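[Meeting: bench + compute handoff]

Bench side (C.D.) handed over the final construct sequence. Compute side (W.E.) agreed to return the predicted structure before the next meeting so the bench team could plan truncations. Sequence as handed over:
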Amino acid sequence: MTLEVFAATWASSSFAKDNVLNMTQGVTQISEEVYQLHMLIFYICCAIALVVFGAMFYSIYQHRKSKGAVAAHFHESTKVEIVWTIIPIIILIAMAIPATKTLLAMEDTSQSDLTIKITGSQWKWHYSYFEQDVEFFSLLATTQNQIDGIEEKGAHYLLEVDNPLVLPINQKIRFLMTSDDVIHSWWVPDFAVKKDTIPGFINEAWTKIDQPGVYRGQCAELCGRAHGFMPIVVHAMTQIDYDEWLANKKDQLALAQQQAAEALNSEMSLQDLMQIGEKIYVERCAVCHQVSGEGIPGAFPAIKGSKIANGDIDVHIDTIVNGRAGTAMQAFANQLTEQELAAVITYQRNGFDNNTGDVVQASDINSFNMQGQDTKEEL
């Protein structure tokens, strides 16, 4: 197969679309434009390669020493200098015009129908729907047993979450992106959206999805130890289905707030707290401190036998609720309910052979938070 035939076959739309090594065409107009730009640049590169290598191989073969070819002796040619300067300029302009149009379109977030704030956090995503009073965290849903090889891996291993981002189709969605800790990168190939989330800075992106479906992506930045455990799942729905989901989500959040308020007036047994706390620990804490509580020496401290888990309860509560500045220990005040916070603290103080016998209730967390608010007001 000649180079020309190979290039034409590879660059053909049907072959390029089906080949797993090629860029996805996606499900948005922008992703299609990006794909077409990619293929155009590829065609140009193939044409340049064909001309350059064709001329080179022709010269090598036609003017070889065995045919008695004698090299010409000249040092400079104004015509040649002009030609090989003008031609690349024309090629660059031909590439720059469509590339500039596509890049400008990708950055145009004006006239959006819906705005969503995306916050990266080790190692999860937080989504907040502007003017809808809806926000939630999205965590990896793949079980630890699958990760450890104890259970058979599912079809969407490491690409499944508990709370997917839900979006309506045929509407322009504006994303505001930032981070709580380190630099992450929100990347969904089907949307042609890949944008860094940077602490203290807000990046913008947008999408307009043409067809319903489930679209998956990942954090594309090396953001730490659990970088590979930070997937993105987007459910694109029709407007009717989206409105129904939004109403149900608001009801779920209202019910969760009501249950959290009721928990302040009830006390749970040590056994129940340990059961709930273990589940939360495995989901939220084990990625750093390990399921065994041993931690990772030099990186993340152990819970087993730690001074915090076996020391003053208020210090322990403060560590979980407010985190620790300058470390990877993040604040869980806005991620867990007061009952869940109480459960995981109780579990840490009584699991891993710590056996302090301490029981922390939701009311204790509430009292701690109220004291913190009073202190801030005094300051």
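W.E. noted at the follow-up: The chain has a mean pLDDT of 88. C.D. will use this when planning the next construct.
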